[in-house]
Every structure is written in C-alpha cells, then in structure tokens.
Amino acid sequence: MNNNNKLVALMLGAFVMAGFNSCSDDHFDVVGSGSNSTLWQTIASTQELSDFKEIVEKTVNMSNENDSKTTTTFDRLLDGETRYTVWAPKNGTYDAAKYKALLEQAEQLKTSDPEKALDCNYTVLNQFVKNHVANFNYEANVGEQTVRMNNSKVAEYNASTGTFNGVKLDATLASLPAKNGMLHVLDGYSPYRYNILDLFENTPELSEVYDYIASQDVKEFNENMSTAGGTDENGNIQYIDSVYTTTNDLLTSSNASISAEDSLYLVVVPTNAGWNDAISKVKSLYKYKSSYKYRWDDENAVFTQTKSDLNADSLSEASARAAILTNMYFSAGQLGDDVYNMDDAAVIQQMTTADSLLTTTDMVVYNTNLGGVNPIFGSVVPDTASNGYVYKVDQFNYTIAGSYQPKITMEGSDASLYYAANSNMNLGGNIQDNVLTLNTDQIAADTVVPGASAYLGKQYLRVVRRNTSAASIDLKVFDLLSGKYDVYVTMLPSKININTNSGSECETKGNMVAATLIDDAGETFASSSNLTYSTDTVSTFKLFSDLEVPYCYTDIPDLEWSSSDNRTFVRLRLTIPAKRSQGSKADNMALNIYEIRFVPKD
Description:
5-stranded antiparallel β-sheet, Jelly Rolls, FAS1 domain, alpha+beta, single chain, 3 domains
C-alpha cells in the first residue's frame, strides 16, 4: 500500500469528507460524449455484463446487515441522478454463480429464516456489488487515483496502466461514459479485502477466537426503528417490520474498531494451537472466590453486602478470555503525526521494534528484545487486512507481569482511599484536611532534607498519632489480581513545618511502621512489622516482598466500575507503633504518605 492509500486508510471522518469534496471538484461534472444513457442502461445493454446485471438487479441495497426494511435493489441507484463510477467484471472472468446462488438462497429463506436471508443478501451487496462501485465520476484520463468504494474499502485505480485494484481493464470496453458517471469493464473481479473481523471469521486457524467473539453478540429488538401494525387479541402490538440491533461488549471494550476501514491496527492473535497456551498464562491472574463482601460503609468500617454463588472457575475462564481478546490490538495512531509520512512497511518496522507499545485499552507491552522485534509478534509474516495486519501466533510470548498484570499506584493525595482504622489516628474530622502540599515553608529552612526538593509542589497525606497508643490508617486497594507483587511506599520527611506560614519546626521523631493486608472478609493474608526508614529524607522502602495475592478483585459481576458503591477491595493497613520510652528514636508520631505502589512480578 502506498502513501496515498495510507493517508486514506488512517485519516478519520474529516479527511474522508475532504477527500469526497475533492472528488466532487475534480470528477463530479465529467461526462463524456455519447452519454445519453444512465449507468444502469449502459450495463443492461452491454452483453458482456449480463451476469453482473443479473446480480445487481437482484441485490437489495441494505443500509446495514440488520436492515430488513429496505426493498430497493441496487440497480435503481445506478439508474438515478447520482453520479457513480462502476468497475464491472466481464462474464466468464469470475465466479458469478456463487453470488447468484447466495441471492437465490436469500429469496428462498425470506419466510423460513429471514435473518439468514438478510445475511446472504448483505454478503453479496458488501463483498461484490459495493466492492465494484464508487461515488462520483472518476476520470479515465488521469493516472493513479485512490478510490474509496461504496463499501468503504480503499482501492487503487490507474488509468495510465489500465488497472483497477490490480485487475486489468478490458481492452475493448475499458471506459463507457454514461450521463450519471462512468462504466469500466474488468477482465476479472476486484478482490474483496477482509477487514480484521472478516479475516478472523474466514481464517480456519482462528476459529477459537472468532467463535468466542461471535458468541458475545447480543441481538435486541429495536422498538423505535420497527414499524408497528395492529394488535392481537391480547392487546399486544404486532409489528409489520421488526428491526434488530446487534451489540458486542467484548469488541466495544477493546476500543478497537476492527470493522472500520479508516484505521490501521497491528493485531497479535493466538491461533487455535496457541489459544490454550494464552489462556493458561493469563488465567492465573483471575482466581476467584465463590463469594465477596462489597458496598463499604466508611463510618462503621465494614462491608454491608455479600455477593454469593459465584461460579469461580467459569468466571476465571471468561475473564482470561476477555483480557486476551480486548488487549490484542495496537493502533498505528500511537506513532503520532509521523505515521502519515510512512508507508506500511515503515509503520510495521517502527511498531514491532518499539521499546514499548500501548494496546487500544492502554495496556503497556514492553519489548524484552530491545532493538529487535518484540517477541509477542513471533517470527510470523502477518496476514494483510483492509485495516491492518494480523499476526497469528502459536506461542503467547507476552511477559505477563507489567502487561496483563499492571502496576497499581495509589497517591497519598487521593483522600477517598483512606480512612482511620482506629480512634488513635488524628484525622481532624475530614481526611481531606490532611492532604498537604510540600512547599518551601514546610521544609525547615535550617535543615537540609535530602531529596525533598524533587517533591516541591507535590501533595501527600499527613496523618498523626493522637496519643501514646498505636494508631492505624487503612487504604483501599482496588483491582488487585491473583498474582505476585512487591509493595513499596514513599514517605516524605517528618522534619517539616506543618503550618505553611513561619513557625517552629515539628520535631517528629521515629522511623518505624507496620503493614497488614486484609481481604474483603476481614482476614489478614500478609503482614510486615518493624519496618524502619529514615524520617530525615525522602524514603522509598518495601512493605512486602513477593506478596502472593490469593484471589482476584476485579471483573466481578455486578461489582464493577459502573457503580463505585458496589465495589470490593483489599485493605492495606499502616500502623504507627505505640509510644516508646522518652527520646526513643523509634517513636514515630506521623506518616507522610506520598505514594504506594504494587509492582507486579513474574
């Protein structure tokens, strides 16, 4: 595909419209001599196009694959005022019988299986008829032209060499002008280029992937678009014409428009041979329990509801499949504006060798073969689709930690994540009041605080023990997966002036904290005590090493992002020990929490 084609393939709506306007300016009024007949009349009178004529006049011009209302056949468009360019294959140069058989099947199934009938007609319309027709009148005396077909596919027409989409124009019937456009006769049909979803459907070794994607289709009756008739004896509305719409949450969640023709993606998809390997590697992150507590009550520090009777094994399988199938698309748009100056080979080279890539869901995939091709692409030659390149891999070479298992970061400034675990933690009534901004007034003027300057202007949470007893604060940790993590905390110095105005320094001593992880049922599954750190510097230290989280806390039915009140989570409890002897250097009075990170490990 050349650069011009790339531009058409990648630009979005505004560019396409600009391209159409350009076509209108250049071609709309071009009508050759002897053009008193319409395109359809010209086709009908050309004996060499009798097969094409029969197919076109029997094909209903559906607006989409679920359109059951339209009855107008495509020949009516070519007999009207709108200008088109038609590249029609000559009799005997293609398998016309295949398309005629589909149309005959559509006619036979109208009553017994209307859905299948629509599918047969739409296949002929989209893959054959519209694949040979373009809006506007493309000139026959201009060199190479990029053409957007009626089915949104992109093709190359080169009048100088007499080829369309790689097919030669007939030597004697190359260009026949009509009053509403131009007819070109081809020595063969223009190959239909599958988009990515089409390619999945029509590639046998991807049947596991396609069948699962298709199983997530939801077809629903659209009352607003349907035509109501009378009512039956029970008063129920009877519809003269019923319209259905199909949605697929799995495809929607991927943020990749793999049926659209105006994008360019690289896709890494496991073959049937690699499907089980992929699932086994990802599934370990989705170990579920049969029940979870949810709907947290901050005031009483308890979960108030229980989600029971979960099928843990089935949910684990479904979550692993969804994770794989929503994170296998990489948009060329992440290369920025430079992509518009590249041909496809350059795009592939840059993306496959990049240090890291983002999927369309923003999952980061690092290249463990720096300077070379990312192992996820394997050594396969990709299949070409109309909107991208599909790498069919037998081996699932992702590094799971850091990609499917992302890092989780909690900022100290996010007060919604914190609450006092006991009354000994002084939060002043509103925890938001404890979110401070580190500035020059807060760093003691006569004290050098190593590393603090890098955090000037940053917010953190400062919580203080109110008396001599141990004090704890809990942090809500969302979306943990059942994998391995190292857990780190970054604390800012305690030797600061809490008041942003001038005043004496707060001589907070101490360097000890304890950490505990508590599941939704209130059970402790990990703990660390006597963790020491320096309160005179910015300190980043480890709370847990090789932490094994036993169960997954994301993608639980009905406990999702759409309703934050319904979510479940793990609690990380940080505890300031009770006051020790007078002057003890281990007597910690406060925590200055800047950030906590759960870093995944293989």
